Amino acid sequence: MNCTNCGTEVASKFCPNCGQPSPPKKITLANMYHDFQARIYGFDGMFPRTLRDITLRPGKASRAFIQGNRVQYYGPVGYFFLMITVMLLLMSILDVDVVMFMKNAGKTALQPEARPGTHQAKFTQEAIKFVSDNIKLISFLIVPIYAMTSRYIFFRKAGFNMLEHSVLPFYVQGHVYWISILNVIFYKITGMFFMNWLTIAISIGYFSFAYADFFSYQSKVKALFKGLGVYLLAQLFFMIIVLITVLIAFFLNPDLVEMLKPSNNR
Q1: Into which CATH architecture does domain 1-41 fall?
Q2: Which of 96, 98, 170, 185 has the greatest number of CB atoms lying within 10 Å of its CB?
Q3: Better-scored residue on pLDDT, 212 or 129
Q4: If DSSP codes are grouped into helix, strand and coil, which group holds residue 230?
């Protein structure tokens, strides 16, 4: 018998080339439900296991991946992009405008909204649109900064290379998007957001906890505060890079400076 998928001759229950069952199962409700579970959860419950362990033991999951376990958990980069995609897909399904969501989420007492119709308001709108259109890239770019800060400043004696240091922040960054997903649902229902400072505090606390769980060659308290240092210093480095990029943009396009002058925003 030949495989119905790739045409390879099959003498067992599964094709040796592509893994297709032979003969293929008839379509039944039971088989459709089983296939649905396999697609959603992965082989042998990969997704719920990844979700559980990254929540409770992010360091354990990261160490397992680094040590060569590629079956038990979703890969860190795949999980990272999966969570961003889920958030964006949910926003599309709930008809939540990404630009307006990010604009309203960023409002704080220290960041008053520019008056509508001014050049400053237009600049802010375009900046938010750029971020929303490139959210995957921007979120991705901060991970190497976390990895470098961890590898060369706070955890130099861990014995991991740069790529290995990036495993944990990929998992953590992806997992933090669950907060954004809950925020999207809350925003759709109520038109409001979770307290921004509470969201930030949870994210920082989880990030620090993940590093304390990941590095076992020193005390957990010391690793916790070093993890906090990784987060804060990496965010500072990222803001400096953004600032330099903006200054270069202003230098290359003087019209941007004119747009933001107070005299042009009254």
Answers
A1: Single Sheet (2.20)
A2: 170
A3: 212
A4: helix
CA angle 52/58/62 to nearest 5° reads 115
Give the residue carrying structure tokens 């960054």: 173
Which residues, at least 6 apart from 88, have a Cβ–Cβ distance to it below 8 Å?
98, 135
For residue 182, give the nearest of 173, 172, 192 by alpha carbon.
192
Q: Helix, strand, or coil here: 21? A: strand
Q: What phi and psi values does residue 111 have, to the nearest 5 degrees?
A: -130, 75
Q: How far apart are CA 168 and CA 12, in angstroms?
A: 41
Alpha helices of 67-134 — where are they, by DSSP H?
76-93, 98-105, 119-133
| Residue 256 burial (C-beta neighbours within 10 Å; 0-12, 13-18, 19+) | middle
Cα separation, 111 vs 48, whole angstroms: 39
Q: Give the domain ranges of the chain.
A: 1-41, 45-264
Q: State both tokens at 228.
A: 């906090």
Sign of the alpha-carbon torsion through 115, 117, 119, 120: positive
For the ranges 93-102, 103-112, 191-200, 207-216, which has the lowest average pLDDT?
103-112
Q: Are 176 and 199 in contact (CB under 8 A)?
A: no
Average pLDDT, the chain: 79
pLDDT tens, position by position, 134-145: 788 888 989 999
pLDDT in tens, 146-196: 999 999 999 998 889 999 999 999 999 999 999 888 888 888 888 777 667
* Count of positions (residues) in the chain: 266
* Res 243 pLDDT > 90: no
